Amino acid sequence: MGKRKSNAEEESPEKKRKKNTQKYLKSYTELWPCLLPSRKGVFFVHCSVCVSDFSCMHAGKNDCKRHIESKQHKDYELLKSNQKAITTYIAPVCSTSQQLQVTNAEILMCEFICQSNLPLSTADTMTKLIKKMCPDSKIAAEIKCGRNKTTAFLHDLARLTQKNLADRMRSGPFTISTDGSNDDTSKQFPLVVRTIDPESKAVNSELLSTPICNESATGENIFMLMDAEFQSRDIPWSNCIAFGSDNASVMTGNKKGVIAFIERKQPSIYLSGCPLHLVHIAAKKAAGCLPPVDDVLVDIYYYFNKSDKRKSEFKDVQELCDLDQLKMIKHVCTRWLSIGRCVERLLDNWDALKVYFKSQKDLQDSKKKPLPTKSSIKDSSNSKKSMDNRNVSVDGGKLKHDNKKETASSKVMFEKVYMEPSYAEKKVESILTFVRSPTNKLYVLFLSYSIKVYEEILTCLQAEDPKIHILRRSLLKLLRSLLVRFVKPSAIANQPLDKVEYHLRYNIKPDSELVIGESATEFIKRKSENHLKDIRIQEFYKNVVCYFTEACDYIKKKTAIK
């Protein structure tokens, strides 16, 4: 039997011998320049001649020396010394001034296609066109820039532009704004940045990128898109001084809006909602106090839209009324104040529309025919049988019918049951009802006048130049223009505009002093001629005060007038 080990020997573990491992050192590269650090780890060395990695863990410098002196390394080194660079077989590009001018012309053509928003396939025909237009030009003869080359040029130019923009965003302040597209599946969010051009000292708006959100367009997901673009370009949020967007809750919400997530990165950021959008909403909110006009405008447009016959008939009526033969304008509800032009066109053709739709209604009434009911059909069949029995005579033992009497007796008395009116018939009736009403015309006259109050600020703020320095002044001017139309001067004098008590009844002007426009005032003066009732006029003045009050409330609450 083998000898048992003592307890002391069992308790003390055997000491393992420590291995000596060598790591890559910079001195290897100094001795042999072809040896570089390896991606495999610190215990490996990469040989650029052999394009391979070997271990230096065992002997370190001797491992490197053994590899350098190996037959394989020497063969690769000899092969590489006899190789010529591929650039020696390629002719130099843009080596002459003419070639530089040709390239410059091609780039200018690509920029023109991009700025004009033309399809890239335009480059195929434009190149041929330039050569025909300038047959004596050597530069035009050398232009060879089709759609593929144009695409490559534009991609390179876009990368250069984005790199330049990112450099400015990293080094100085900037503002950013975005809005989502109307796509159902994936929404695009173009990131538009405004920075100061260091050369021209001008404030320019440039497109940074257009990321796509394939998930639900929540405030967090939109912010993650923006943050990913910033991180990929090493742009700090601390340089972002303002965020611009529309006034939807997904953008401006205090808890889950995009601005709430941006404030966690940049607490001092300024939220710049779209003031034009707010002015449009204020006008739309105010118009809710008046009878709806936009629905009638849409109905009139689509009634004439795809019918040449109706358009021709309406032109005849316009000529009869001595009016210009202009078509009705389509109202698009994206921006409510675009209704102004539509309302003016409606007023210009008011009498012509009344005549036309009256004739259409009369034509429809003349074509209506009653339908038989079950009871009328049953009565008619019984009456026919009884009449047949009465009109039978015997002639030579044969039954004979009296055809004349049968024809007279077969006339059936129908009950007056009519078919349900079609969609077009319903529209004709609703439009005719609207244009027949003198009260509706009074409201349209006032609406046409009141919309012009907003035109000055809309024109001013849509300019290309920065208008942030006059934004508050313009909003206060709009508020004053609304207040002076229904509030007494004594309530406005020596009082800040946002402190005017226009809700108090004693501060409101009398009905006769309300500013409603010259056309509406003249229409009321001729109330007997226009068949206007006094009760309707009183209701109109009440709605006018409500209109101005709603507009002022929204402007004070939502815009930056404080």
UniProtKB/TrEMBL annotation:
Transmembrane segments: none annotated. It comes from the Eukaryota. Residues 1-21, 365-404 are annotated as: Disordered. InterPro entries: RNaseH-like_sf (IPR012337). SUPFAM superfamilies: Ribonuclease H-like (SSF53098). This is Zinc finger BED domain-containing protein 5-like. It comes from Crassostrea virginica.
